[in-house]
Amino acid sequence: MSSVTDREGVARLTRVVRPTDGAGLMPPPRPTTAKRDQPGSGSTLLPQTGVARLTPRARAAESAVREFRTVMGRFATGVTVVTTVEKDVVHGMTANGFLSVSLRPPLVLVSLGRCRMNEMLPRSGRYGVSVLAHDQQHFAAHFAAQKPSPTEPTFAWQEGLPLLDGALAHLGCRVVDVHRAGDHVLWIGEVEYIDHRDDEPLLFYTGRFGTMRDIADRIDK
Ligand SMILES: Cc1cc2nc3c(=O)[nH]c(=O)nc-3n(C[C@H](O)[C@H](O)[C@H](O)COP(=O)(O)OP(=O)(O)OC[C@H]3O[C@@H](n4cnc5c(N)ncnc54)[C@H](O)[C@@H]3O)c2cc1C
């Protein structure tokens, strides 16, 4: 199976979200004339087809990847399992690159690097997000392909989407927009289903899982 990379992959993703019932989901395609890349042609202001244009300064950040990860690791997050289904095959993966984008309409996004999920979403067009509870760390490690869970994950089905049982919150989303950004792809989903329960969340901080108390204890030491 080919992976979603480069220009061809972006073209494939773009086709998936190009609406059949109306225009405007994606920016207009880039002009194909060679002139556009010439200095002074104004090309930096042209809209991109979901492809982030890196500045020379952004490329220089390559040398500081470790520092970048360390800094971003100070942004404490929850942990989700993103799911989809294709031809009755359920697939899940752990992701903390998840955020709320818009209230009206309700939009969220998941940011995915090179992974199997990126290959399935152009075909399935829908994904579920399960926000993990404090006692679901084994599932977080399982769906990150780090360590198999001692218990088999089970899924609740809502409107044709699998959502991990026992999670704190569930969202069912339809892909409405896709953007490539550097080495990740941003999958914007319109939220079609939600539910939640109250419990303590699983957190991810400085590259480690923990509860709120675990993390507070770690900082105190
Ligand atoms: C805290 C944390 C946050 C992360 N955040 C992100 C992020 O935001 N973006 C990102 O791109 N990557 C993220 N990752 C990395 C990502 O989880 C891994 O790279 C993952 O392996 C990618 O999954 P995949 O789609 O390639 O599928 P695979 O690696 O093939 O599958 C993931 C695992 O889930 C199991 N699995 C899948 N479906 C099922 C099923 N139906 N039943 C039982 N088991 C199943 C597989 O056996 C495998 O062990 C994160 C990892 C961690 C630990």
Structure description:
The protein is of the alpha+beta class and 221 residues long. The protein has a single domain (6-25, 46-220), classed as Pnp Oxidase, Chain A (Roll), CATH 2.30.110. 22% of the residues lie in helices and 33% in strands. It has 6 helices and 12 strands. The strands form 3 sheets. It has a 7-stranded antiparallel sheet. The protein has a 3-stranded antiparallel sheet with strand order 1-11-12. It is globular. The N and C termini lie far apart (47 Å). Mean pLDDT is 82; it is low at 1-48. It binds flavin-adenine dinucleotide. Flavin-adenine dinucleotide binds at residues 79, 90-97, 111-113, 115-117, 140, 142-145, 153, 204. Residues 79, 90-97, 111-113, 115-117, 140, 142-145, 153, 204 line the site of flavin-adenine dinucleotide.
Helix content: 10-25%
Estimated structural class: alpha+beta
Strand fraction equals: 25-35%
Give the overall pLDDT as a whole number.
82
Radius of gyration: 19 Å
Task: List the strand order in the largest sheet.
Answer: 3-2-6-9-10-5-4
Number of separate domains: 1
Element-level helix/strand string:
HHHEEEEEHEHEEEEEEH
Number of helices: 6
Largest sheet: 7 strands, antiparallel
What is the 3D form? globular
Poorly predicted regions are: 1-48
Could you tell me the CATH topology label: Pnp Oxidase, Chain A
**Spatial gap, N to C terminus:** 47 Å
Under CATH, the homologous superfamily reads Electron Transport, Fmn-binding Protein, Chain A
Task: Kindly state the number of beta strands.
Answer: 12
What CATH architecture would you give? Roll
